[in-house]
Design goal:
The complex is a heterodimer of chains A (359) and B (276). Chain A is mostly helical. Chain A has 15 helices and two strands. In chain A, helix 1 packs across helix 2, helix 5 runs antiparallel to helix 8 and helix 8 runs antiparallel to helix 9. The longest helix of chain B has 26 residues. The two termini of chain B are 29 Å apart. Classes of the chains: A mainly alpha (359), B mainly alpha (276). At the A-B interface, helix 4, helix 5, helix 8, helix 13 and helix 14 of A face helix 1, helix 2, helix 3, helix 6 and helix 7 of B.
Chain lengths: 359, 276
């Protein structure tokens, strides 16, 4: 494994160099000629909209970017269970309770798909979770906001899942095959959740005066954080250009954000709720809505760890993991005792040599 | 007491307890599994409660004394071993009971036939974890044994006949009367229940054909087999629960239950008449 990693490093250097727009390093040596051929094949595959698969050669920076993005995505699913699980025991009807439980269960499932997809890049779920717990990898900043009323469950479904879908549907065409395939499955379920959230808010909006007010308050609190889910503005987004060149990303942050606002404005009207932005208005010339300025200071603050629930979310995640350690140890000890020697050999023979192959 | 209410409350309350695990499970696969079981149980509860009346009125507007669930299912989650011990005791019981109901031609036969498939999975999940925790590490072994011990006392209640679900209707009434003799303060309620049972048992239960003594024997055999395979020891203490065996079915619960209901019902009760 160590030799393989070193080999990847060599490859990655040339990959990064090419990606950064410089010429490939000094020509003439055999390994570099081979690298250049691999990189050319990779670039051609991306250009042709072919899928990059786990055993294909890829630039190390491409691999690292995907691991970072997929891990963050997986972590968001897992941390994202918390604000909604907060209302499972208080759901106001059995039907809503069943819907919410199913949704939180789906999120755990999405986390599992995404960790599996990330593992195809040569990392492990354990390693990624350790990084999350150590604060070395992020999750979506949106989950650092609290769910204060039942209507927040609806607002999360409508706005947060809505923003996630807007972001994620293009990922179904992402250049990395395992990620793209995970997203196809995830997006289907997310769309379902989003409709349920919308329907929850609609029931509140058309309910009693108190229910309507609860719905409006939730939308007022979740609107701006949802817009922040698209990330910093294009001129301040550090990874965007490279991700777009690699076809990991298909649209810019601002482009997706504008698309989301255009989707939400008529939906808010249909809900009988208002969006907390007096500057939203139709721009005939652009054929899109204009909207007010986002408070990027708040965004940076939440990202830095100083949002309303950052501490609580990560503490609960760490605690679940630590308090579950003895259970995982027990399962491992049991498996070791009850696995036959031949089965054990077969398991050890399996680990994929993921970088042997060329594109 | 209606049998649908008793079975429905068991499923509702245990589902709620399992729902409390969301976001706290030891491993992601268990987040999925526990939520899955909770959802199955909630689905069963909704069908059963709807046989009695409006599911939400029954779930959200009854007070503690009107709930008919077993004291076992209302017990707090504790650690993972505690939760698994509760799952083992209940899912083996529910599986054996639903198998018998499905085999009969009573009013629950169809419902039980559908639910028994889910419950077989719940039982397998619980048994597999008892094996892993019991025969895992020294720590997990100790915790699993402690979980089995702590909940053992609540297991006797499961075999107190539920009116309408026994082969001979009058047996239930006789047992209920016998139980009332031992429950002291619960006597008045129990006598009323027993009187009601004489009138209704057999009416909706003919053909359900549950032989409770036989059910208890099958349960003990199954639980013993799993516990021993897991290198654990079957507890030996009394099995009468708090108050007496059968008390949960009479609406006599343990203290944590009221707090659970307060949380569960708060929002619904805060908006009388609202729909959600």
């Amino acid at each position: 494994m160590a030799a393989v990693t070193a080999d990847q490093k060599t490859q990655s250097t040339s990959g990064t160099a090419k990606a950064a727009g410089t010429e490939a390093g000094p020509a003439g040596t055999a390994p570099e000629a081979a690298d250049a051929a691999l990189l050319a094949a990779f670039d051609a595959a991306v250009a042709a909209d072919d899928r990059i698969e786990p055993r294909d050669w890829m630039p190390e920076a491409y691999r690292a970017t995907l691991v970072r993005q997929m891990a963050q995505h997986a972590h968001s699913e897992i941390i994202g269970m918390q604000p909604e699980a907060n209302w499972i025991t208080r759901a106001p009807s059995l039907r809503r309770k069943a819907i919410l439980m199913a949704k939180v269960q789906d999120e755990a499932g999405h986390g599992l798909y995404l960790y599996s997809a990330a593992e195809t890049l040569g990392t492990s779920r354990e390693e990624l979770l350790d990084k999350l717990h150590a604060g070395r990898q992020r999750y979506s900043s949106i989950f650092n906001y609290p769910t204060l009323t039942w209507a927040d469950v609806g607002a999360i479904g409508w706005l947060v899942d809505g923003a996630a879908i807007t972001n994620q549907v293009p990922l179904c065409r992402c250049s990395y095959g395992p990620y793209a395939r995970a997203m196809v499955r995830i997006c289907k379920e997310e769309s379902f959740h989003q409709r349920q959230g919308y329907e929850l808010l609609l029931a509140l909006s058309r309910g009693t005066e108190a229910q309507h007010a609860m719905a409006q308050d939730a939308v007022d609190r979740w609107w701006w954080p949802s817009l922040m889910m698209f990330g910093p503005p294009d001129d301040a987004s550090s990874h965007s250009a490279q991700s777009m060149a690699w076809k990991i990303k298909r649209h810019s942050n601002d482009e997706l954000r504008r698309r989301f606002v255009d989707i939400c404005v008529p939906q808010a009207e249909a809900l009988g709720l208002t969006l907390p932005d007096p500057d939203i208005r139709w721009n005939e010339e652009r054929g899109q809505h204009d909207f007010g300025a986002i408070d990027w200071t708040e965004f940076q603050q939440v990202l830095k760890g100083d949002g309303p629930c950052n501490e609580q979310r990560i503490t609960q995640r760490r605690r679940a993991h630590e308090e579950g350690a003895w259970v995982r140890d027990a399962a491992a000890a049991y498996a070791a005792k009850h696995t036959t020697p031949s089965a054990r050999t077969a398991q050890h023979a399996q680990p994929a040599q993921h970088v042997e192959e060329t594109a | 007491m209606s049998a649908a209410l008793a079975l429905g409350d068991d499923a509702l309350v245990l589902s709620h307890r399992l729902g409390e695990w969301a976001g706290h499970a030891p491993v992601l696969e268990e987040e999925v599994a526990l939520a899955n079981i909770a959802l199955d149980l909630l689905g069963q509860a909704r069908v059963l409660l709807s046989l009695v009346g409006d599911e939400d009125e029954l779930a959200y507007l009854r007070e503690e004394r009107a709930f008919r669930n077993l004291q076992l299912v209302e017990q707090p989650n504790g650690d993972f071993a505690h939760t698994i011990a509760r799952q083992l005791y209940f899912s083996v019981y529910q599986h054996l009971l639903y198998e018998r109901l499905a085999a009969g031609d009573g009013r629950f036969a169809e419902l039980a036939a559908k639910a028994v498939k889910e419950v077989a999975y719940h039982r397998d999940h619980a048994e597999q974890w008892v094996l892993r925790l019991g025969d895992g590490t020294a720590e997990s072994h100790g915790r699993m044994q402690a979980g089995l011990e702590a909940l053992w006392r609540f297991t006797g209640e499961m075999f107190q006949p539920i009116e309408g679900l026994d082969a001979a209707g009058t047996t239930a009434a006789a047992d209920a009367t016998a139980a009332s003799a031992t429950t002291g303060t619960a006597g008045a309620t129990t006598t009323t229940e027993a009187a009601a049972a004489i009138g209704t048992a057999g009416a909706d239960g003919s053909g359900s054909g549950v032989d409770w003594a036989e059910l208890e024997g099958a349960w003990l055999a199954a639980v013993t087999a799993t516990v021993e395979r897991a290198t654990l020891t079957l507890p030996t203490g009394a099995r009468t629960g708090a108050w007496a065996a059968g008390a949960g079915r009479q609406g006599l619960h343990t203290e944590p239950f009221g707090r659970m209901l307060a949380e569960m019902q708060h929002l619904h009760r805060s908006h009388p008449g609202a729909s959600w």
